[in-house]
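Many introductory courses stop at the sequence. We go one step further.
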Amino acid sequence: MAAKRRPPVIPDDTAPESMKAVCRNVVVGGRRTSIRMEPLQWESLAEICRREGRATNDVVALIDQKRGDSALTAALRIFILSYFRSAADPVPTPAHALAGMAEEQASFRHERHYSPVFERALDVFESR
């Protein structure tokens, strides 16, 4: 006799609000796409964009270019984790460079210039 299977549990039905995935639209390569992440992930991505002086669409487009065969949402989650791990890493940086999680981050608004933390976080896509 075949084992009885439990009906699938839909996480959004029982999960606390802070863990319910939220779907948002972003523009990547001139096309709108939907990304579904938890509120904390969206807040973290917004914080990265604020620190870097970049629009969400710009950061997502860069991650899209770097992600290889990974799903975009998975690549974003990995990048967010990598960014904050890089920011918390006590690796010494030059005096003129960004000092980790400091509130008074230097501005990197010039085209193609990102903070050292951002650049180190992108390294996660180079070690395939």
